[in-house]
Amino acid sequence: MNKIGLIISREYSTRVKKKSFLLMTLLGPLLIAGLMIGAIYLGLSDDTQHMVLVVDETPVLDNNMRVFEGRFKESPTIRFEYASQIMSDEDFKESPFTLMLILNEEVVTNPVAELVSKKQPSLRVKSNISKQVERIIEQEKVREHGLSYDTYKSISTSLDLIDVDVTNMTRASRKQEKAIVGFAFAVVIYFFIFLYGVQVMRGVIEEKTNRIVEVIISSVKPFELMMGKIIGIALVGLTQFMLWIVLTGVLTTVAQAVFLPDMGEQAAMAQMQMTQDVASEVGKATGQEAMNKYFELFFYEINWFVMLGSFLFFFLAGYLLYAALFAAVGAAVDSEADTQQFMLPITIPLVFGFIVAEMSLANPEGTATTIFSLVPLTSPVVMMVRVAMGVPVMEAVLSMLLLVGGFLLATWVAGKIYRTGILMYGKKVNYRELWKWIRFQH
Q: How many of the other CB atoms lie within 10 Å of CB of 125?
């Protein structure tokens, strides 16, 4: 154990002193903060002026106007003009119009329209035009039935279906919103395992190539070397991860204050407008009520003690499991180019776990989510989604025990491969050869 501690210390101190570590620790937050600030700035500075030609092919009404003529509401960035015939492609390209909305004569009974563009408009612009067309069609249908639009709106009903869990009938369950929080933790685990698991493999290949390992193996057992390397790189990763969080927060705050002093207010207004649009769609809660629900969900309904504890366990246990397998791959080959054939069986379960976690956002308590939250190779990613929603204690414990068992089994298999492969040079290894190494009795 003392030797493992020495290897951990060596691995940690060697890596954190490297220029590449310092460079990535500083560049990582700069890139993240820069992308965040840039994305928000570009999103808020979308002031493209659109001129929309509405080609209204619907029949002429009693007032000598067509259904859509003069009924679109303009905004500072969108203006509308009307025509009864489609403009040719060449004429449209030469015209000052940026969009051409084509409404055929049957659009009221069959609501399908075409939007021709010179340059792809933003989702907000398309949503604005689409909602206006829907509103006008609704008004026209209401008029045909002899009702006023205000009467129609007063009797129009939108059902707010509230999920209530049988274990707590006094409040909405909101499991799907909680699943999104769990998915965010799952993404962090997924990328950490990939990023630092591959570093373990590269470290083993590097030492094997430089023959440094021959000197080290004369003093320690291969298994001790493997465990020391895995834990040491995990500590390096955790150090870098924590520094990224702190530095990204500081840089984002400073950049916001210096370069975009009004960004926070604008972003809040944009978020409020978006929330009000969603609330308007469902016809229920106001924007402020929706914001209050998000606040309540984040600060009061998520069990952060359980969430962070589970995150730490699955974060470390998942990394240790995969790092052992990556170390075995590194020991089996002589160069990184030879790793491809062995990487696939390791990366497929991890990618599949990520896909299942993403699918669970649509169906949080589906069978696939339940099964793969227990399988050791996928549980580090999938189980975090279930933990956020509130998983039965027995299932969480079973998942942890299976993950620990999977880690021990993977470490045993990886140790067998590592012990033989770490001193093997110049031989092309295949799966049959690996199987011999696993069965070999030392």
A: 21
Q: Are 79 and 93 in contact (CB under 8 A)?
A: no
- Burial profile 326-339: b = 16 or more Cβ within 10 angstroms, e = fewer: bbbbbbbbbebeeb
Q: Give residue for tokens 């397998």.
A: 325
Task: Give tens-digit pLDDT for 331-370.
Answer: 888 777 777 778 888 889 989 998 998 888 877 778 888 8
Q: What DSSP state is assigned to residue 47? A: -
How do residues 247-289 score in pLDDT, each as one tens digit?
877 877 777 676 665 555 555 555 554 444 444 444 444 455 6
CA–CA separation, 68 and 57 (whole Å): 9
Farthest-apart Cα atoms in the chain, separation:
98
Average of per-residue pLDDT across 40-50:
70
DSSP conformation letters of 105-155: TTTTTS---EEEESSPPPHHHHHHHHHHHHHHHHHHHHHHTT--HHHHHHH
φ/ψ of residue 421, rounded to 5: -75, -25
Cα separation of 107 and 110, whole Å?
A: 5
Alpha-carbon distance 415 to 410, whole Å?
A: 8
Q: Phi, psi at residue 260, to the nearest 5°?
A: -130, 70
Contact in structure between 198 and 206 (CB atoms under 8 Å): no
Residue-wise pLDDT for 368-426, tens only, equals 888 999 999 999 999 988 888 888 889 999 999 999 999 888 888 888 888 787 777 76
Query: pTM here?
Result: 0.68
How confident is the model over 60-100, as pLDDT tens digits? Answer: 887 788 889 989 999 888 999 999 889 888 899 999 999 99
∠ CA 137-142-148, rounded to 5°: 125
How do the residues of the chain divide into helix, strand and coil, expressed in percent and rounded to 5?
65, 5, 25
Q: How far apart are CA 179 and CA 388, in angstroms?
A: 6
CA 89 to CA 98: how far, in whole Å?
12
In which residue are the tokens 């969430």 written? 307
| Count of CA atoms in the C-beta half-sphere (13 A) of 3 | 12
Asked whether 355 and 281 are in contact (CB, 8 A), the reply is: no
Q: For the residues of 269-300, what is the DSSP string, one character each? A: HHHHHHHHHHHHHHTSS-HHHHHHHHHHIIII
Burial of 388 (0-12, 13-18, 19+ CB in 10 A): buried
